[in-house]
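Hi C.,

You asked whether I'd gotten around to modeling the 282-residue construct. I have! Everything is below, sequence then structure, no commentary in between.
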Amino acid sequence: MKEKLLSIGKMASLNHIAVSTLRLYDEKGLLTPQFVDPESGYRYYDINQNARLDMIIYMRELGLSLAEIKDILNKKDSARIEALLGYKVEKLSQDINALKAQRRAVNRAIESLERYRKSPRPGNFALEYIEKRRILAIDCTHNFYDDDIHSYEELLRDLRLRLSAEGISQIHSYNIGTSIKARDFIDGKMKADQIFLFSDLKENTNKVKSRLLDNGMWACVYIDNYDDELPYIPLLKKYCDDHRYHVSGDYICEVMTGFNIFDDDPKKMFLRLQVPVTFNNR
């Protein structure tokens, strides 16, 4: 009988798969050999079993598990196949979106480090055009400018916990930001308004406010230490006054890069202090 059958090696070679794969399919009940030699234990297959093997390989390429394939082949239910494939399409879409988000996060990290290399020296003022940005924000429950950096870190942890509770992964957000209302900035009041993360998500959440920062010209200054923000805020205001720029929105402190990935000092940060401005008609 076995003279008319294919050895497991020949069956594997014809289908460009490993012998171990055929053994696995046999163990899982997916493709049972036509004949097993009782003395040697060698497996032999009928050439007609190639059709079932082709179906198994095809469904594996579609992303179905061996258990799912076995269930389909045993039940011979086309509706079951359709439902499983529909689920796989949805899962693949989710995986693709997750990979795209990961790629965006990597690109943002590269851009952030590149900006650090190419940015003006700390303490230099500049006028920059900045594109629209979306933020996920919470109101500051206390004015961290009156306390030390641990007060700021507590607010940031609260924000991250709220995002986590909404099922929002950290990969969807990048630079950290804090704000002071425009009127307080103009009046010289150091009163924290919001803490937020810049994000590529557009959806609103129950625990976090989502809003869009308009594009336009921003008066900016870069600094490299958390403690330098307070003395530089009035200097940024003076820079605007000296150039007759009109402050048109809230002041923002943006953490471009956290140097504490290399240093234990939590205050070592690369910051961009910025405020949107418009100009008097000439």
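If it helps when you're writing up: The helical segments are 8-14, 19-27, 50-61, 66-75, 78-118, 149-165, 182-187, 229-242.

Thanks,
B.
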